[in-house]
Amino acid sequence: MRARGGEDSFPEGPKYRQVAERLRRDIAAGAWAPGEQLPVERDLAEALSVSVNTLRRAVSQLVEEGVVRRRQGSGTFVRPDAGPSAAERPKPVGDRRLVGVLVPSTTYYYPRVVEGMQRVLRDARASVLLASSKYDLGIEDSELRAMCETGVHGLLLVPNLHLMEDPQGYVDRLGRLPVPYVLVERQPPRPAPDDPTTYVVTDHAGGVYRAIRHLRALGHRRIGLMGRLLTGTSERVDQGFADAARLLDVGLADGTVVRRNEWTAAETADYARHCAREGVTAVFCHGDRDAAALVVHARQNGLTVPDDLAVVAYDDEVAEVGEVPLTAVSPPKEEVGALAAQLLLNRLERGERAPAHRVQLQPRLVVRASCGAKPPAAEHPPAGPA
């Protein structure tokens, strides 16, 4: 935490204005670089010895003044033109560095990945510049350029490889970046044997296999897939299901392995009815929301979950909040982010002497009501390298 000054540094006046003036001075002095994210409210309020409500009023004043700006779902950031120029800013002290983090979304899946990154980087006294590509290749390119121009020392990147015509070519071009980088939840799709890219990913296919093995152990023979197309993980999830069906002798009925860009209510209802006609007793869904919708439509068609139809989801973002809490494959999101940050710090420290790492972390299977039974203890190993 980098709140500056001593306890007597607050000027006189209403408390929130005192705090606003304190933050204004700190920003002007370079405590947070232009474009850098402020600490979370709780931590910053604690550092300044004020309530969260007082801090919020102070930050709101700085937003009105144009000193900082809020990004929905991301946090509060110093405006790029609010601080001193690069020449005027104090030089980094000790090992303090600025790390750029580029993710596709700040509202789903990736907030917990970013939390893991921020925890490690904060402990290392590194600052974070966070941006979202919003699954748009144009925005991704401009944000990446802006980060490099801002002067980041390293990058943690989640590129939209699934939207690119030549994803391997893009990864190859990343090697020309002026700073070290680590890929997060992405890996080179067709790498050369000596590809130097360092990455940390979840073993999505392994997570799906674990879920299907659990369903088979519960006696389910005919299992469907309610899948997705064109997401960052859809290919690996689909491959995991195909491998599990083959290796675990799963019966695949016609029309019950379906993948769509989006699932409408009508399509979900039709799918639930078709599974009932085909004798499917369990469905694996790529996404909590699709799984929750399937539960609703199954029950509307006279199927009881989990007695008539077991449902397992992938992601575990909102799986536990429904009327029937969902059994879900839970990627180790914070651990992925934390390990990626550690590897980047190692690259920053050791330079070309740092070896490339290719790391997979196994997801957990979190058992809830929608599958009907608990797995043996072996189904719950701690997250770790696969």
In short:
The chain has 386 residues and is α/β, with parallel strands linked by helices. It has 3 domains: 7-78, Winged helix-like DNA-binding domain superfamily/Winged helix DNA-binding domain (Arc Repressor Mutant, subunit A, Orthogonal Bundle); 98-202 and 335-361, Response regulator (Rossmann fold, 3-Layer(aba) Sandwich); 204-331 and 365-379, 3-Layer(aba) Sandwich (Rossmann fold), CATH 3.40.50. The chain has 11 helices and 14 strands.
Walk me through what this model shows.
It is a single chain. 37% of the residues lie in helices and 16% in strands. The chain is α/β, with parallel strands linked by helices and 386 residues long. The protein folds into three domains: 72 residues, Winged helix-like DNA-binding domain superfamily/Winged helix DNA-binding domain (Arc Repressor Mutant, subunit A); 132 residues, 3-Layer(aba) Sandwich (Rossmann fold); 143 residues, Rossmann fold (3-Layer(aba) Sandwich). A six-stranded parallel beta sheet has the order 4-3-5-6-7-13, sandwiched between helices. A six-stranded mixed beta sheet has the order 9-8-10-11-12-14, sandwiched between helices. Helix 10 links the parallel strand 10 and strand 11. Helix 1 packs across helix 3, helix 2 packs across helix 3 and helix 9 crosses helix 10. The protein starts with 14 loop residues before the first helix and ends in a 20-residue tail after the last strand.
